[in-house]
């Protein structure tokens, strides 16, 4: 009961080469540059929101309510996150 190992399988397989699909990266260089700029905006916004508090727990420091900390910093951070989403979904137009 030995099986023949020289079975002709050429009838079941095609010998034509299949067309190759060109590998395309999901992000282009422009996407990475835009994401880097957005990351810098987010970090800048958090740095603008940070700062020292009062010297002791009994003293009040009105600087914690400065415009830089409660308006400018969060706005820049929010725009950074918003533009980051745009940088991720942006695709360049294909040339004809």
Write a structural description.
This protein is mostly helical and 96 residues long. It has helices at 29-49, 67-89. The protein is elongated. Helices cover 46% and strands 0% of the residues. The N and C termini lie far apart (63 Å). Helix 1 (29-49) packs antiparallel against helix 2.
Q: What distance separates the N and C termini?
A: 63 Å
**Helix coverage percent of residues?**
40-55%
Find the count of extended strands (DSSP E, 2+ residues). 0
- What is the strand content? under 5%
Q: What's the number of helices?
A: 2
Shape: elongated
String of helices and strands: HH
Integer-rounded radius of gyration: 30 Å
Low-confidence parts lasting 5 or more residues at pLDDT below 50? none
- What is the residue-mean pLDDT, rounded to a whole number? 84
Alpha-beta content class: mainly alpha
What about the largest sheet? none
Sum this structure up briefly:
With 96 residues, the protein is mainly alpha-helical. The protein has helices spanning 29-49, 67-89.
């Amino acid at each position: 009961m030995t099986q023949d190992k020289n079975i002709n399988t050429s009838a079941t397989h095609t010998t034509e080469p299949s067309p190759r699909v060109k590998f395309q990266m999901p992000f282009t260089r422009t996407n990475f540059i835009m994401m880097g700029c957005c990351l810098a905006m987010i970090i800048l916004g958090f740095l603008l929101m940070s700062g020292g508090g009062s010297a002791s727990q009994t003293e009040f420091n009105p600087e914690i309510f400065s415009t830089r900390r409660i308006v400018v910093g969060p706005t820049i951070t929010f725009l950074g996150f918003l533009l980051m989403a745009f940088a991720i979904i942006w695709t360049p137009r294909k040339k004809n």
